[in-house]
Structure formats: structure tokens, C-alpha cells
Amino acid sequence: MYEERPSRLPGAVVWEISRSEGRPVLPDGCMDLIWTPGDLFVAGPDTRAHPGGDRPPGARYAGVRLAPGTAPALLGVPAHELRDRRVPLADLRGAARARSLTARLDAAPDPVTALERIVLRAAADAPEPPDPLIAEVVRRLAEGTPVAVTAAAVGLGERRLHRRSLHAFGYGPKTLARVLRLQRALALIRRGTPHAVAAAAVGCADQAHLARETRALAGTTLSAYAASLPAPAGSGEASAKRETPRPSGSRTTA
């Protein structure tokens, strides 16, 4: 079972999985600090679906999903160094610090809240606040603004925006725009929007374009994704479909 709530850290989400079903984790532009008993690690920004089957069934996980572009200041490492990786916190903050934090979470009566406090402290101790320019880039790309127009709006050339994006997001603005566009399309599909309508709404050329993006970024087809969604109430479908699979580095029950 998956549960989430907004974090006290602006833009972040606190989540917990108490049962793993092995669904893949889809790219969402975010990075996560994740705890499971005895381990604390960072999920870097994904450019493709990450297999969910590597999590043992029944394992408990808690995490804080950090909004696109906000994690590097907290972790002290450029996002591109963590792209498509799951990295032990010990590799980023030192073994002694990671062991101490992991032990604290293992012993906490509420590891989810304790993990959020750790992230809030890291944000308070960060040498610089989040870059408002990066937040504006995310906002514009999430709305479907073209990369060239976004670069001009924030006062950067496309090459400079690309360099800034590698540090902040782990990849260039065009990749982030594709990831965010796919997220918007899949959100519409989860609400019952026909595939062709969802494709047009997010700026894809046609349904075939959206299908190619789904295959490339999510590792599945539109029909398979739609089939994995929960059945309408009272339909009698199997309980395995009750939970909505969420296209996110931390929102997926996997």
C-alpha cells in the first residue's frame, strides 16, 4: 500500500510503501531520499523506467520526493552524477554520517516523519537557497513552453540553460520537458481521458507520438498502462488492480 502527503519542505512530498508489488518506477524529474530498514539511499533522476522488481515483496520503504532541481543543493552533488542511479547515502555524505542517520531512522517510532526532519535540516543547512531561476524553468516546461522560449524568458541562452539543467535536473531541458509532458499525459489518462485527446492536450503531434514517448520513457505501451489502472468501483476486477500505479520515482507502488 502506498501513502503520500505534502512535506513541510516546499514542493516536496513524503511517501511510504508498506507493500511492494514490483511495478516499474517511471521518470518524473524528481530525486528521492529513500529509507528501508538498514539502508538509506538516493534515487537519482531517471531517463527511463526503473524496474520495480528489485524491491523484495513486503519490504517497507519511506521517502521524501524532492521537486525537480532542488536536490543538488541539499545533497551537495550535481544531479547528472546521479542520473539513472540508486546511490547509497554513504557515497555522498560519508559512511559514518549515513550509518548514524540510518540507525536513527531504524529506531524511530515513525521513520517517515523522522526522515522528513532529516531533509528539513539538510535544507536549512544548505549553503544556498533553491535557485528561483531553476524553479521558473520547471514551471514553464511543465506548462509546455518550448525550450527556446523558456531560455529567453529566464534570460539564458540555450547552451547555458542546458549546462544549468544538467546540474539541476540531471539532463538537459528537452529531456525534462519530455518527462513532464509524459507525466501530464498519463495523469489525463488516469482520469479517463482518451489517448488521442490526452496526446493533443499535452502538445504531442498525435496519439502515435505519445505512444512512442510512453514506450521510450516508461518502457510500456499506452494500452498496457491503461490496462494497469484500477477498475471502476463495482466491476469485480481482481484486487491487484485496486491501486493506481503512479508514474513517479516515488509514487509508484513498486
Q: Please, could you describe this protein's structure?
A:
With 254 residues, the protein is of the alpha+beta class. It has a domain at 2-125. It is 44% helix and 12% strand. It has 11 helices and 6 strands. It has a 6-stranded antiparallel β-sheet with strand order 1-2-5-3-4-6. A hairpin with a 6-residue loop joins β1 and β2 (13-17). The radius of gyration is 18 Å and the shape is globular. Residues 232-254 have low confidence and may be disordered.
Order of helices and strands: EEEEEHEHHHHHHHHHH
Q: Describe the biggest sheet?
A: 6 strands, antiparallel
* Spatial strand sequence of the major β-sheet: 1-2-5-3-4-6
Residues in β-strands, percent: 5-15%
Enumerate the spans where pLDDT stays under 50 for 5 or more consecutive residues.
232-254
| Rg from alpha-carbon coordinates | 18 Å
Pfam families: DUF6597 (PF20240), HTH_18 (PF12833)
Region (Disordered): 230-254
Domain HTH araC/xylS-type: 131-228
InterPro entries: AraC_XylS_family_regulators, DUF6597, HTH_AraC
